[in-house]
Structure prediction request, 108 residues.
Amino acid sequence: MVSYGEIFVFITAAGLVVGKNELILGARFLGGAIGQVVGLLQGLSAKYHDTSRKNKLYKLGEGVKKGLDELSAIKLDLYSIGNSRFIPGKFYIFYYIAYLSSSSKNLL
Prediction:
């Protein structure tokens, strides 16, 4: 691990040995090289995320989500069948009509 003090000492020694003008040119070169490396790494990261979305594992995850949604719909249907007086969900009207028709048969 390099501390800030060591970096300061190194830059000061390099400035004394090389000279002020050459040190500035070296710092510009080093900064440009680091910028290019960072740009390449960001591009690689973006490509990795794009390909992972197209990967089979991403599609498998979407399939699992769809399966869980279907299971929750089945759970709702089973709950509504088990609860005879109030049936929550989108099929409430159909169950209510069936309940009325069955109760009218019992009255006749």
Remarks:
- The radius of gyration is 35 Å.
- The chain has a mean pLDDT of 77.
- The helical segments are 4-18, 20-53, 56-82, 92-107.
